[in-house]
Amino acid sequence: MFGVAAGGAVVAMLGARYIATILGIDAGMVPLLALAFLALPFITNLFGVRVAGWLQLVLTALLMAVVVTVIAVAAPAVQPARFEPFLPHGWGGVGAAVVMFVWAFAGWEVGTHISGEFRDPRRTIPIATAVTLALSGASYLVLQVVTVGALGSRAGEGDVVLLDLASLGGLSAAPALVGAAAGIVALGVMNVYLAAFAKLGASLASAGDLPAPLAKGVGNGEVPRRALLLTGAIILVYFTIVLLTGGDLQPFILIHTASMVAIYALGMVAAVRLLPHRTLGHRLAVVAAVLTVAMLPLAGAALIVPVLLAGAAVLVGVIRGRMHGAARS
Fold first, then answer.
1. CA angle 299-113-302, nearest 5°?
2. What is the pLDDT of residues 18-57, one digit of tens each?
3. How far apart are CA 161 and CA 182, in angstroms?
4. Pair 73, 169: CB distance under 8 Å
């Protein structure tokens, strides 16, 4: 809740930069546009208004259509020479890219925080997870190949890579398509993020890990406004730091992904301990635990944030244990 929330500021800034570039808006207006991307889904969640499942599906389908269209028009510009030299930044660059690539997948797990809102979560969540991972993996893999093959060293220079790719194919509707994609990503992602994080905060409060007043609204169908306000405050803190540090988003993406990798590693270690031994699930958990733990050092300095947060969590647990012990005595 306190580490992954850095992604909220990043999503808002990315959406704002795309819109500003496409509409020719002055760069000085980007922070205000980003605040708008934060405010709209926050207000709707504050009043308990959420995007219906079918609408979220339509938005996601539109986003996939935009990505597929951009890939199709840019694919003819791919040149094998753009993939040389091999590993221009060494294996260290590969490690950094692996951690950054977690950004492409992080987010599907927040559905578990609002699982009580699903009609049949035991059926829906596994299916949605499998479909999400398959589609995301295939889409991002192809997009990365086309991006490097078509743009080469220019791939990491701009903030609107999709627009750069679309322009290679002479697509006249490129600005409108990419602008739509930016809006869908920013608003759709923030809507789900805020709803899930608010429920997470209320759940943590009901378990005693956060102050008890934040637990209000934890029940299914209820609106956890207090926890939502805390979530909004955390994202605003990250947003302010982004602005004060010059708007470079990579450090905050790394904070987000390092926190996610740490969560995945802990989750897989827990699965190894909890799942019945000598089952397929347990064997897969062992492999996943090894892979996720091996990713942790790749996060580099960004790993400091989840380490500090983990230390704070342990400290809260110790204090709670002592308070309960004192109450029993």
1. 15
2. 888 778 888 889 999 999 989 988 888 888 756 556 666 7
3. 11
4. yes
Q: Pick out the chain residues at pLDDT < 50.
A: none
Q: What are phi and psi of 142, to 5 degrees?
A: -65, -40
Where would I find the H helices in 106-247? 121-151, 161-168, 174-206, 225-244
C-alpha span between 93 and 133 (Å, rounded): 24
* Rounded CA separation 117/218 (Å): 11
Q: Who's near 227: CB < 8 A, 6+ residues apart? A: 197, 198, 199, 200, 201, 202, 205, 210, 214, 215, 217
Amino acid residing at 207: A
The DSSP code for 272 is H
Tokens of 48: 């308990």
Name the DSSP letter for residue 106: T
Q: How far apart are CA 27 and CA 2, in angstroms?
A: 29
Residue 273 sits at φ, ψ, to 5 deg, of -80, -30
Q: How far apart are CA 109 and CA 212, in angstroms?
A: 25
- pLDDT for position 243: 93
Alpha-carbon span 16 to 219, nearest angstrom: 34
Three-state secondary structure readout of 209-241: CCCHHHHCCCCCCCCCHHHHHHHHHHHHHHHHH
Residue 182 to residue 34: CA distance in whole angstroms: 12
Do 34 and 18 form a contact (C-beta atoms < 8 A)?
no
CA–CA distances in Å: residue 281 to residues 111, 218, 269, 272: 21, 31, 12, 9
| Residue with token string 């694919």 | 75
Distances (CA, A) of 298 to 29, 93, 101, 227, 294: 35, 10, 12, 32, 8
- Whole-number Å distance between alpha carbons of 329 and 327: 5
Q: Cα(61)–Cα(63) distance, rounded to whole angstroms?
A: 5
Q: Identify the pLDDT of residue 284.
A: 95
Q: Report which of 49, 51, 32, 52 is spatially closest to residue 228, judged by C-alpha positions.
A: 49
What pLDDT shows up at residue 51?
57
